[in-house]
Structures are given as structure tokens and as C-alpha cells.
């Protein structure tokens, strides 16, 4: 199982770096095995990539602790996921902007379904905060998209400006957002 994990980690990193253009030879070289050994674990590059993407989808979408149900902790949990590594940020940007065509009907559909579920959770948090008087009454959809734009903007600036520090002024940015909606 250790070799399988190394293969998947290598494919994850190479996909984040190159998209679908990486080769199994590169994976084998990085792991220190022969290319043919990969086939003992994965029948094809597509199956390997499918498992890598599916595993990351699971980690991303099911990590958010639904017991801590407030907007700020959701903001922090999402950023904490991306803070773990630059590779994770590149992986998701590449996957969402340039998804492998072979997975459009499967994994991309799954991402869209899970994304809508996450949006619903955040939308409910926003609606609840409005009903409790923490946020002024306004269009919840606008607040949702502002929240998401803030997160995606923070993730993107670490890619664009090659910064490892995703926590750059995170608290101040949150306060500016919160003050704008309350």
C-alpha cells in the first residue's frame, strides 16, 4: 500500500504542476519504480488520476466540520485546507479551470453536486445570521458569492504572487468583509 500511496502523491503533484500532461514515466521515476509497476496498482493513467482526484474531492468537501456552524469558522476551515500546501491550491485551480475531459460526466458532476451542498450550508449560515440580527437583511445569494469571491481571491493571490502565506492579513480581511455585511 505504501507504493500505491507514493504513486498517488506523485500523480497529485504532477497534475497540480502540469495538468493532464504528466506521464506515468514521470510518476515512476519520481517514486523510484519501473513504469510497469504502476499497472499493478492502476490499470491506466485515467484510473490513477480518477482515484487521485476523487480522494482529494473527498478530503476537501468532507473536511469542513459541520458542528462548528458559523460563517467565520467556515471561512477559516476552508483557508486552513488550502494553507496546507501550494500544491493543493494549484491542484484545485487546474482541476476547476481545466478539468480532464474524461471526467466531465463523473468527477466534475460530483464536484458540482458537492459544491452545491457546501453552498447550501453557507447560504443557511448566512440566512440564520440575518434572522438572528448578526447580518443586516440583504440578498443572501449576494453575500454567499461575496464570501466565495473573498476565499477564491485569497487563494488566487498566493498563486499569482507566489506567496506561501495564505494567512496574509486574514483576520483584517475577515473583519472588512464582516463589517460590510453586518
Automatic annotation (TrEMBL):
It comes from the Bacteria. The keyword Transcription regulation applies. Keywords: DNA-binding, Membrane, Transcription, Transcription regulation, Transmembrane, Transmembrane helix. Residues 1-60 form the HTH tetR-type domain. Residues 23-42 bind DNA. It holds the Pfam family TetR_N. SUPFAM superfamilies: Homeodomain-like (SSF46689), Tetracyclin repressor-like, C-terminal domain (SSF48498). The chain crosses the membrane at residues 143-161. InterPro entries: Homeodomain-like_sf, HTH-type_TetR-like_transc_reg, HTH_TetR, Tet_transcr_reg_TetR-rel_C_sf. PANTHER family: HTH-TYPE TRANSCRIPTIONAL REGULATOR RUTR, MYCOFACTOCIN BIOSYNTHESIS TRANSCRIPTIONAL REGULATOR MFTR-RELATED. This is TetR family transcriptional regulator.
